[in-house]
Amino acid sequence: MIAVKVVDRQGQCATFSAESGQRLLQAGLASGVGLPHECATGTCGSCKATVVKGDVRRLWPEAPGAKALRSANETLLCQSAADVPVELSLRANFIPPYEPAPRETKGELSLVRELTSEVALFSIALRDPIVWQPGQFVLVSGLGIEGARGYSMTREVADPSRIDLLIRKDPSGRFSTALFDDLGRSHEVAVFGSLGRATFSCDEGRPFIAMAGGSGIAGILAILNHAMNGGHFSKHQSKLFFGLRDAASSYLLDEISAAVAASQNNLAVTVAFSNEACSPEFAARYPNINFVDGFVHDVVRAAMQSGAVPADTNPIFFVAGPPVMVNATMRMLVTECKVSPAEIRYDRFG
Ligand code: FES
């Protein structure tokens, strides 16, 4: 085992051990150390650290998150491994550690249902159940392809050793391409989790405004599912804004429409199509859903500015989707709608 020492911006120090070749972020989080991160897959840049002593192996130097690195001594903890003892310093402070600490297990990944030609619902039968909260995600790796991908759990199921994930085919991604090339086949995968702080509990006793772009809906659906099962909608009116390209690429609208009905309309859902207007015939299939044209963050802005989202209800804001959509929505909420960043929960991954 390799000794790893990390010092944060305030001078707080933590130590943990990593196996040679193990990703330092995963090793630290599994040891109960609150290493800062969001995506855990090399996209966001929030896990960057400076190598002060020793050295690390960069596992994916071209990771999109590496754009956040400013010197040759800096590295992404989620894309680094150590073969010798190493000391690192963080620009940020440690975050509260997960409870329980995430860990790795194995599982069998298989298709549940194809939703469109590029989005499908999969399940993983886990060897050991993992504990997760609505809004969290896991890292999945396997199929002989290097690296891990983050996918949100999409609904609560009775069997604790099963998790359901929404996976989008990314034409530039070898993992999802391999999955979609042979949907009938199941795969042995490694699962690390649970991760993510954009979580929700009915015990919080507050309404929520959720905004999802594309497959970012997965974690939001788990939140809806939890809210439904916990009686949230009998006490609080909440809203969902869901951005999709067009009617042809839409999915899960039956489930969302059923959630609106079960909430007795205390959940209001708006679906925004960015590429084309929604036809009256299509809209008529989902009378519980309000269809509009435009990008989802523009639609949310208009709703906020028209007073359709009253600030005095003290809502929690959830933003989920690709980093570009999350960044645009965060900017809009904070700078234009004056929402406190402390009230917005998000994880940029994808
Ligand atoms: Fe490492 Fe996002 S780049 S957590």
TrEMBL record:
Organism: Afipia carboxidovorans (strain ATCC 49405 / DSM 1227 / KCTC 32145 / OM5) (Oligotropha carboxidovorans)
UniProt name for this protein: FAD/NAD(P)-dependent oxidoreductase
Superkingdom in the source lineage: Bacteria
Pfam families: FAD_binding_6, Fer2, NAD_binding_1
Residue ranges annotated for the FAD-binding FR-type domain, each copy included: 102-201
InterPro entries: 2Fe-2S_ferredoxin-like_sf, 2Fe-2S_ferredoxin-type, 2Fe2S_fd_BS, Beta-grasp_dom_sf, Cbr1-like_FAD-bd_dom, FAD-bd_FR_type, FNR_nucleotide-bd, MRET
Xref: PANTHER family: NADH OXIDOREDUCTASE HCR, PROTEIN RFBI
Gene Ontology molecular-function annotations: 2 iron, 2 sulfur cluster binding; oxidoreductase activity
Domain 2Fe-2S ferredoxin-type: start-end pairs: 1-94
